[in-house]
Amino acid sequence: MFDLDTERLRLTAFSMDHLDALHALWTDPDVRRYLWDGEVISRERAAEVISDSERNFAERGYGFRAMLLRDEAIAEVDALVGFCGYRLFEDSGEPELLYGILPRYWGKGLVSEAAHALIRDGFERNGFTRIIAATDTPNQSSVKVMQRLGMVFLRRGEFHGLDTVFFELTPEDYAAHQALSARRN
User: Fold this and answer.
1) What domains are there in the chain, each with its CATH number?
2) What pLDDT, in 10s, does the model give residues 73-113?
3) What b/e readout covers 79-105, taking b as 16+ CB neighbours within 10 angstroms?
């Protein structure tokens, strides 16, 4: 499995070497509020997510990646600050984009940077025809990330008992969004 590098991040497939750092991330109160609906997951549950991701990479060519810093100006190089990647969306079997980052790195554009790299990879290497993303409606920071990525609002509804918003992205929408962004810059 190869890494994806961005300006400030190395995106590397989950491995058990990441277990302690991912468990710490996923049990942070501000992260778990929306990611795990407030549940404090066990170390064993975190290990299951890593194993599932490893299996997805082997079977499908995609899964979750650890976000490791490459920029010494932000923090120690190779520090795990978040994650980004895909799993199968349970309603449709399509790739669902998920991400999370430690609160001290919020607002620095790192999630958008990682997600752009993964979206490009998903469309180009994996041949995705559509990417789904969803978040609890109150999680407006995540909604803003989806909008910055060029994702299109699909619907709002109840999902697992929670008020949820759903977005999608097609290769055509992503290309149009990238072209518009390039003209603005």
Assistant:
1) 4-184 (3.40.630.30)
2) 555 657 899 999 999 998 678 999 999 999 999 999 999 99
3) ebbbbbbbbebeeeeebbbbbbbbeeb
